[in-house]
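Bit of a strange request maybe. I'm writing a small parser for structure token strings and I need a real example to test against, not something I typed by hand. Could someone generate the tokens for this chain?
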Amino acid sequence: VAERCSFLGYVIYAIFITGFIYPVVVHWIWSPYGWLSAFRDPEIASGVWVSPGVIDFAGSGVVHMVGGSISLVAAAILGPRIGRFDATGKMVSMVPHNSAFVGLGTLLLWFGWFGFNSGSTLALSAKFILLAEKVAVGTTLAASGGGIAAICMCFVKDGYLDLPHLCNGILGGLVAVCSAVAVSEPWACWVIGFLGGCVEFWMAVAIQKMKVDDPLDATAVHLGGGFFGLICGGLFGTRLNTDAAYSEDQPCGAFFPGCGGQQLGVNILGGGMIMIWCMSMAAIVFGSMKLAGILRISQKEEHIGLDVSYHGSAAYDDTLDGSGSHKYRQHAKQAIQEAIEEGDEQQA
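Reply from user aminoacidic:
Good idea to test on real output. This should exercise your parser:
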């Protein structure tokens, strides 16, 4: 929704997602009471339970599919940025302002993933420290696999190596491995990351073909990588690793002898339920805001840019002598005054 969603829209959907949509999925899969939880405690929980529960150690489904499902619906309802598609419907390229910052941001996210994945052990005592160490190794391997996959796909499709695609491939690999990172061997984590990078790249292409404007490819990274990650959670879990991370009663991955496909089936069911819940709720939230006329900024504000129209100055100084700050302050004041006058005329 970047570059065209109103500030009020941001506030409203943030409240609904964090306060209502996301907590429901967390309860389903990570709570000891959840009907899809591998951590369900039968002594205190009652009601329906899909045994043996979803294997989603660090949130391929619980965290990333939630965000990816909502982002797809939000971008579709909000509509594309002005100029994103030409008169014939062909996509117009909009390159990042600063690819170096894109790379830096990706590295920061990658670093944070070590806390996100390894911290999902919830403890560092006894055997948990060994599991956290293994998870950190698997996280690194998945990121490298995803980056390699995406940059290769970029070269195959476009004939060059593009940094943003590399960065999104890294993130796609990290998202995909979250589900199975604790139950998979290190080699399997690299494979999951590599395939997750491929899924992310081609899903981003498909979404562009659908004329949905997703500036950061958030849907491809989080929905595509997340759902693929849940599938891998039902495929790559070894008996030894599953016993260590969960319990002896938890089924292992379908790729290993004697494990069967029960875990794969439950994980796919979990992914489907996450999409149904999040997409339907997102359609209500974003559709209501669109009908109320509070979701999208005006065309004038979009042409000026949200930095200037909402925050009073531009994020980038395009002058060589550093005089841009004064120039943009004056431009911002003029733009804001014109927007106010235009609003007064419309009310009149």
